[in-house]
Each structure stands twice: as structure tokens, then as C-alpha cells.
Amino acid sequence: MTPSVTVDFVSDVVCPWCALGATALEQAIDNVAGEVSVELTYKPFELNPGMPAEGEKAVEHLMRKYGRTAQDVANGKAMQIERGNAIGFKFDLEKRTHFYNTFDAHRLLYWAQVEGRQVALKKILLRAYFSEGQNPSDQPTLVRLADEAGLDEARAREVLASGAFAEEVRELEAFYQQHGINSVPAMVLNGRHLVSGSQSVEYYEQMLRQMAQAPAEA
């Protein structure tokens, strides 16, 4: 019988390190296929829960929030692009002009999990924002991306318009914050083992194999 591992990947769709971590993790999952059965679920985290609908210019936001210089921001972009290229994720950070509110995106991802299309939607959302500069707070954009992920377009529109799954998303955000996750990405394996930060494909493979062989807690 193939051993199984559950992975809760806590992240935001406007977090570049989350994009890198998610891409590396999904490659690691592919690499252990046949050895380890992995159940991957993306969990919500908002980097900027108070961000207004119109967003904030990306460079100014990073300088203000983290106390960085313009050169620091440029260096960070270069590092992210290099790491992305190494694992096949394309950053076009000239197109990513703003940071946006992501609460609606998380509501849509919650619904997508129910529909069995969450991993597909997450990948599309990350590409849309980081590679194409699309706005993940814009509801018509989210509806179109949901359709691209194989979800029902009319139902996606209904979910977003109704405020559905808002309480569930807030409860999950509070749960992970109460358990000490204050930065992302963060990965929880089998509900108990925490891996913080964006790691390599090889490291994620190692952790998946290790947790697959670990004895279950009593």
C-alpha cells in the first residue's frame, strides 16, 4: 500500500516566495508519485488584509512595508526571477504593477477545493498575477480564471457576488495565525510538521518521503 501524506500549504496569491514554493512542491509531488500519495490543500493567508480595492503600487508598497530601498526591491526581483527560471516559473515583475486585496481569491480557492479544482486554480492565479500582471481582486478576472481552471463560470460569479465562504476563510486564517504562522509560505505535513519558507524541489521531496515513513501519532 502506498503511504500517504497530507500537505496544507499556507500561502497568498500575491506572495512571490509562495509562487516559488508552490511550484517546487508540485514538482516534488510529481517526483514521488508511485512512492508517496500526497493530498495537497492550499490554505489562506493574506499578506495585506487591509489593502483597498484599488491596491497599492508594488515598489512603493515594498519600500513602505518592509523599509526597503528601491535598490533592495530591484535586487529582490532579480533573485525571484532567477529562482523562478530555475524551476520553470516565469516572473514578469514589470507587469506586476500593484499589490492587491486577495480575500475574494481565497474565497474562490476555498470553493475550488470543494469542487476538486483547487490546485489547478491556484496555479492559474499565480501565473495570472506574476507572469501576466492580472488583478486578483477584480471579480470578472477571477470568474474568467475560474472558468480556465475548469470551474463553472456562473457558479463562480455567484460565489463572488454573494460573499460565500467568507467565514470559512477567516476561520482558517485565524487558525493558522493562532498556531504561530505569521509569514508565508508555510507547509504543514500530516497536520503536525511545519516547514517554513520557500524550499527547493529536492528538500520538499525529502520531507514528503520522510513523513511518509514516519509512524503515525497515537
From TrEMBL:
Top-rank lineage group of the source organism: Bacteria
Domain DSBA-like thioredoxin: 6-208
InterPro entries (alphabetical): DSBA-like_thioredoxin_dom
Protein name: DsbA family oxidoreductase
Lineage: Bacteria, Pseudomonadati, Pseudomonadota, Gammaproteobacteria, Pseudomonadales
